Amino acid sequence: MAHFEMPVDKWGSSLAMCCSFFGIECKVFMVKISYNQKPYRRLMMETWGANCTASPSTETKAGRSILEKYPDSPGSLGMAISEAVEEAVSDEHTKYALGSVLNHVMIHQSIIGLEAKKQMEMAGAYPDVIIGSAGGGSNFAGLAFPYALDKINGKDIDIIAVEPASCPTMTRGPFAYDFGDTVQMTPLLPMHTLGHNFVPAPIHAGGLRYHGMAPLVSQLILDKIIRPESIQQLETFKAGMTFARSEGYISAPECNHAVAMTIREALKAKEEGKEKTILFNWSGHGLVDMAAYESFFRGKLADHELPQEQIDVALKDLESLPKPRQAT
Ligand SMILES: Cc1ncc(COP(=O)(O)O)c(C=O)c1O
Fold first, then answer.
1. Rounded to the nearest whole angstrom, what is the distance from the C-alpha of residue 210 to the centroid of ligand 1?
2. What pLDDT sits at residue 327?
3. Which letter, b or e, does each residue of 56-90 get, where b requires 16 or more Cβ atoms within 10 Å of its Cβ?
4. Are 83 and 29 in contact (CB under 8 A)?
5. Above 50 in pLDDT, residue 3?
6. Where does ligand 1 bind, in terms of residues with CB under 6 Å?
7. Domain that holds residue 158
8. What CATH number does the domain containing 92 carry?
9. What is the pTM of this model?
């Protein structure tokens, strides 16, 4: 039996490890740009016995159709999902395991927030601000959802989901029905989206390069329980350096988005003369991302201004799809 999976890196590694424990074959479609940028992540999966394929690949119809149109495509999470789903539906012994976006993933990740609450209680503290980086939404929702319940019940908490400015799903994408993948194989999901054909710039936070956002996170944005923010790449790496030099830990580029927002909020509180408890999700280490840090040190990284026309073009693909009810 084989498991196919989308390449949220931390998820691909976890799945590869678990499959090896249970004697299950594992195949990972890893976004091409991440495959090239993060060879050690791929090697971790291979060490646990997974077969790792750069997506788009020539192994699926979906991959071949994308490569025909865009031979140099850096890939996207939406494309990798198309390839994985195609392999899963073409073989009854193959199952597909998605590591983010879908609501059930948000719910099982909420163990993070439930544990955080217990730890905060032990520390005699309660957060004023909660922060997480959001690609498909899983680590953010995992921490935030137990606190979102408190906010719905009247607590005053600022809950911030952070995304890259070059893939601004929550801050610039409409709430619409869209496919979770490029080749339109998934059911339609009501979510903030930039359109299933949107291909973000090849920034180093590969896990945040997804066109959509979990429907539950999207709904809580509409309900004003969650505040979305976007940050440019260079600010996130600067924040990662500050964090490493003060706390010791080297964060993944995705995680640096949460670190950067935490620094912003801490500085804001200082300016306002307020004492605030800020809780953020440190979603992963960056030890397999040192090449990205090297690019930053050598001045090779840039910020990306995403032109509105690029979003408008991608959103044209949504025109013929049904429209969800908007918040009142
Ligand atoms: C370290 C890290 N943080 C955050 C994310 C974002 O994913 P999600 O929004 O599902 O938590 C990823 C995805 O690859 C990641 O590798």
1. 10
2. 56
3. bbebbebbeebeeeeeebbbbbbbbbbbbbbbbee
4. yes
5. no
6. 8-10, 100, 133-140, 207-208, 252, 254-255, 283-284
7. 104-318
8. 3.40.50.1100
9. 0.94
Q: Examine the pLDDT at 299 and tell me if it is beyond 90.
A: yes
Could you tell me the distance, in angstroms and rounded to a whole number, from the CA of residue 6 to the centre of ligand 1?
12
Atom of ligand 1 nearest to the CA of 252: 1
Convert the pLDDT of each residue in 139-191 to its tens digit.
Answer: 999 999 999 999 999 999 999 999 999 999 999 999 999 999 999 999 999 99
Task: Name the closest-CA residue to atom 4, ligand 1.
Answer: 254
Per-residue pLDDT of 30-73, as tens digits, reads: 999 989 988 999 999 999 999 999 999 999 999 999 999 999 99
197 in a structural domain: yes
Pocket test for ligand 1, best of 107, 254, 261, 262 (most atoms within 8 A of CB): 254
15: CA distance to ligand 1 center in Å? 14
